[in-house]
Amino acid sequence: MALTEPIRVLLVEDRADDQDVARRSLERATGNGPTIDLDLAADLEAGVRSIRSKSYDLVVTDLALPDSTGLDTFDGVARAAGRVPVLVLSATETLETALECIERGAADYVMKSDMHTDALYRAVLFAVLRNSVRRDARQLKDIRARLRELI
Fold first, then answer.
1. What is the 3-state secondary structure (H, E, C) of the chain?
2. pLDDT tens profile 118-144
3. Cα(62)–Cα(4) distance, rounded to whole angstroms?
4. Does residue 82 belong to any structural domain of this protein?
5. What is the CATH number of the domain that holds 86?
6. How many domains does one find in the chain?
7. What mean pLDDT value characterizes the chain?
8. 103: pLDDT confidence band, cut at 50, 70 and 90?
9. What per-residue confidence (pLDDT) applies to 146?
10. What is the C-alpha separation between 129 and 145, in angstroms, rounded?
């Protein structure tokens, strides 16, 4: 992914004020980097529908949604997202939950209180870039395997 292309992000968040803060944070921080194309979903079901109907570079999800809470929310989003990285955005800071999300494959865990800084934008950008590097490495590995078969 070139840094000049917009990053397609789905934000799964039910609180309108947190949606607005996240949007403003991502818009404000894009001055020196790629822009963010942000879609919104207010619950897990809507988020899963969006993931299945559109291509995203990253999914950002709150853990406390009207139809799902905690690690069940992360698991539902991650299952739907497949290889698309999932970043957790949460108002509750418990090291145990953050570590469990990371162990289950979360790209990062950002506190809502940090949305007023560039932390969310940086986490989004870094997660997308890491995923791009991993995808390129997988493709290179596949090409090498095919070349070995030909030799």
1. CCCCCCEEEEEECCCHHHHHHHHHHHHHHHHHCCCEEEEEECCHHHHHHHHHHCCCCEEEECCEECCEEHHHHHHHHHHHHCCCCEEEEECCCCHHHHHHHHHCCCCEEEEHHHCCCCHHHHHHHHHHHHHHHHHHHHHHHHHHHHHHHHC
2. 888 888 888 988 877 677 667 777 788
3. 27
4. yes
5. 3.40.50.2300
6. 1
7. 88
8. very high
9. 79
10. 24
Q: Is residue 1 part of a domain?
A: no
Q: What is the pLDDT of residue 121?
A: 86
Task: Give the position of tokens 């698309």.
Answer: 84
Cross-sheet strand order for the sheet of 108-111: 36-41, 7-12, 58-61, 86-90, 108-111
| Residue 2 falls inside a structural domain | no
Phi and psi torsions of 64, nearest 5° = -105, 100
According to the model, what pLDDT value does residue 46 have? Answer: 98
Of residues 148 and 53, more confidence is placed in 53
The answer to whether the CB of 150 falls within 8 A of the CB of 56 is: no
Residue type, 24: R
State pTM to two decimals.
Answer: 0.84
Domain region containing 110: 7-150
Tell whether 61 is covered by a domain.
yes
